[in-house]
Amino acid sequence: MIGMHRRNITATLIALILGALGGAAIGGCGSSQTKTVSVAGAPAESQSTTTQASTSTATTQTATTTTTSTTPPPTSTAGGAAAPSTTHSAPEPAFTQQEAHTEGLSEAVAELKARGYAPIETSQYHPSQTLRVLVGSDSSSPSGYGQQAFFFVNGRYLGTDTKEPSATVKVIAQSDTEITLGYPLYRPGDPLSEPSGGQAVVHFQLDDGKLTALDQIPPARSSTAPARN
Fold first, then answer.
1. What does DSSP assign to residue 88?
2. CA nearest neighbour of 172 among 138, 141, 208, 215
3. Which whole-number Å values give the CA distances from 144 to 15, 140, 195, in the listed order?
4. What is the mean predicted confidence (pLDDT) over 185-211?
5. 152-174 b/e with 16+ CB inside 10 Å = b?
6. How far is CA 229 from the centre of its chain?
7. 2 versus 105: which is more confidently predicted?
8. Pairing assessment for the beta strands 178-184 and 170-174 based on DSSP bridges
9. Cβ-count burial of 177 within 10 angstroms (0-12 exposed, 13-18 middle, 19+ buried)?
10. Residue 122 gets which letter from DSSP?
11. pLDDT tens, 161-188?
12. What angle do CA 127, 93, 206 make, to 5 degrees?
């Protein structure tokens, strides 16, 4: 009986030991599975790699953009930066302008001659002005009296200062659109060479293509008041 009891105790101990070892083995397998689950989170590392790649690509694009934007502008042959490609009209050469001016004066002189007048002083004609003037005297008067002022606009004949000529006419001043004339005045009985009535000053102004006398023009002749003849 005692021997049998010992064998039972021994069997029981062996069963306990085997049970303990089995539990340890099962615990070890569970631990291994847990580690496997935790390692399964590795896709985060792949996502990090993708983020790094995207960052690298963005950096490359930024570097490329920076390189493009810092490209220096083309330079001229003189070494400086090239000017914007804007077309400009070059002014005419000086000799071309002089020829045009001479042609304008020639046309003005021809206009006077066609009307029976000869220019007194061609330097009075200023081709650079819009409003131009040239005083001429009656070609049939050997003394040079019987004068009129001939007006031109940009070289085109416009008309005279008065319908009837004056004994003499003087150009006092002129600008681009205004010309001032002076008329020596004669009292009754004054010889042509000795006007005693002073001088009338008349301003002529060009306005919208029309020439207007800003002052009163004295009469051509008068028996009581100073006149132009």
1. -
2. 215
3. 160, 9, 15
4. 95
5. bbebebbebbbeebbbbbbbeeb
6. 54
7. 105
8. antiparallel
9. middle
10. G
11. 999 999 999 999 999 999 999 999 999 9
12. 20
> Which phi and psi (to 5°) does residue 152 adopt?
-135, 145
CA-nearest of 73, 130, 66, 128 to 101 is 128
* CB-based contact 228:167 (threshold 8 Å): yes
The pLDDT of residue 121 is 95
**Which pair of structure tokens corresponds to residue 34?**
């847990």
Q: Residue 83: pLDDT above 70?
A: no
Neighbours of 126 (CB within 10 A): 18
Q: What is the DSSP string of 192-226?
A: TT---S-EEEEEEEEETTEEEESSPPPPS--SSS-
User: Contact at 8 Å (CB) between 206 and 130?
Assistant: yes
What's the whole-number mean pLDDT along residues 43-72? 43
- Residue 205 makes CB contacts below 8 A (sequence gap 6+) with 177, 178, 211, 212, 214
Question: Within 10 A of 133 (CB to CB), how many other CB atoms are there?
Answer: 22
User: What token pair was written down for 125?
Assistant: 């004609």
Amino acid at site 217: I
**Pick from 97, 157, 112, 106: which is nearest to 132 by CA?**
157
Bridge partners, residue 212, by sequence: 205
Token pair 């010889």 is found at 191
pLDDT tens digits, residue range 101-158?
Answer: 445 999 999 999 999 999 999 999 999 999 999 999 999 988 899 999 999 999 999 9
d(CA 106, CA 113): 11
109 neighbors 122 (Cβ within 8 angstroms): yes
